[in-house]
């Protein structure tokens, strides 16, 4: 006879797929023992640069039961964002995740629907939904849930789908069937390490966040250090180099989420268009995009840094 645990788990996974998630894995909520010393050392060595928020809620980052009282399961979900078309060659580049609408809103809506389905079928559930906006180590939970392994570039990698996807979680008080971690399939490959324009991957599986192009173009609020001049490879917002060169991304397939489709004007922007961008054009093209996070002034600073 099928237990409630099995029934509930199967239902949640099938609902996740129905809502457009690429995959769903579940693990037991509890303290992340192996991640604790890694996170502590990373912070001690100031690999977070000016991302001071990474130092907050240290205990909650490592134990979701402190974040959601009574929680028993972490449901990890992946949502594909790999685009059909990319920017033209003569352009300053933005990370593919920022081509369409801000993923926070798109995923939050899907998570709300998933919670509604769970409560309609299983009953009242205590829990919270997270999309990269709370102290949750989402890559660690996704790996624990069998959705992939953490690669040498510190991204979650999947044999089936590469790494161009978002990660989200539901942390709930439901007792469910748990998945198992998969093995690492990076082997002896060092393509991501060799290709990183700023040598931010300081060793296999170790990224110095304060050296990453994404950090400089999005998180850093002051001037970009002069020693980085000529090393940005035309990236004006974020960077995909370590993903673009990863052999597992040959298995990436285009997403089917219309809200992630780029504004056609974005794909046609040339370097001179970027250099002449006005506040109105910025507001128009990036109205609902993650690029708004850099603000118009931040984007201008990045363009000037690439132009000089």
Automatic annotation (TrEMBL):
Residues that bind tRNA: 221
Main localisation: cytoplasm
Broad EC category: oxidoreductase
Annotated cofactor note: Binds 2 [4Fe-4S] clusters per monomer.
Reaction(s) the record says it catalyses: epoxyqueuosine(34) in tRNA + AH2 = queuosine(34) in tRNA + A + H2O
Cofactor(s) recorded in Swiss-Prot or TrEMBL: cob(II)alamin; [4Fe-4S] cluster
Residues that, per the record, bind [4Fe-4S] cluster 1: 186, 189, 192, 246
Keyword Transcription set for record: no
Pathway terms, separated by semicolons: tRNA modification; tRNA-queuosine biosynthesis
Coiled-coil parts of chain: none
Domain 4Fe-4S ferredoxin-type as annotated: residue spans: 174-206
Active site: 132
GO biological process, any: tRNA queuosine(34) biosynthetic process
GO MF annotation: an example: epoxyqueuosine reductase activity
Keyword terms of this UniProt record: 4Fe-4S, Cobalamin, Cobalt, Cytoplasm, Iron, Iron-sulfur, Metal-binding, Oxidoreductase, Queuosine biosynthesis, tRNA processing
Entry's EC annotation: 1.17.99.6
Binding positions (cob(II)alamin): 61, 132, 153, 156, 167, 214, 239-240
Assembly description: Monomer.
Purpose: Catalyzes the conversion of epoxyqueuosine (oQ) to queuosine (Q), which is a hypermodified base found in the wobble positions of tRNA(Asp), tRNA(Asn), tRNA(His) and tRNA(Tyr).
HAMAP family registered for this protein in UniProt: QueG
Protein name as catalogued: Epoxyqueuosine reductase
Species, as recorded: Flavobacterium kingsejongi
Record gene name: queG
């Amino acid at each position: 006879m099928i237990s409630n645990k099995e029934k509930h788990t199967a239902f949640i996974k099938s609902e996740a797929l129905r809502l457009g998630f690429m995959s769903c894995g579940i693990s037991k909520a509890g303290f992340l023992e192996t991640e604790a010393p890694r996170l502590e050392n990373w912070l001690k060595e100031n690999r977070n640069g000016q991302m001071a928020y990474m130092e907050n809620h240290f205990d909650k980052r490592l134990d979701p039961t402190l974040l959601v009282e009574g929680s028993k399961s972490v449901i990890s979900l992946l949502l594909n964002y790999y685009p059909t078309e990319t920017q033209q060659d003569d352009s300053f580049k933005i990370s593919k995740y920022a081509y369409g609408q801000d993923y926070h809103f798109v995923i939050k809506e899907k998570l709300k629907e998933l919670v509604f389905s769970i409560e309609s079928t299983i009953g009242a559930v205590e829990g919270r939904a997270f999309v990269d906006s709370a102290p949750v180590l989402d890559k660690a939970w996704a790996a624990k849930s069998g959705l992939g392994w953490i690669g040498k570039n510190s991204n979650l990698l999947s044999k089936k789908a590469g790494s161009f996807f978002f990660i989200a979680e539901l942390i709930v008080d439901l007792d469910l069937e748990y998945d198992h971690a998969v093995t690492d399939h990076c082997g002896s490959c060092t393509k991501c390490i060799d290709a990183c324009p700023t040598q931010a991957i300081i060793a296999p599986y170790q990224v110095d966040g304060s050296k990453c192009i994404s950090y400089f173009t999005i998180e850093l609020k002051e001037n970009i250090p002069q020693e980085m001049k000529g090393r940005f490879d035309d990236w004006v917002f974020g960077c995909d180099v370590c993903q673009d060169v990863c052999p597992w991304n040959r298995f990436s397939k285009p997403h089917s989420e219309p809200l992630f489709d780029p504004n056609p004007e974005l794909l046609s922007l040339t370097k001179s268009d970027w250099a002449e961008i006005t506040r109105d054009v910025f507001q128009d093209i990036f109205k609902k995009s993650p690029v708004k996070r850099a603000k118009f002034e931040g984007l201008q600073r990045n363009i000037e840094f690439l132009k000089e």
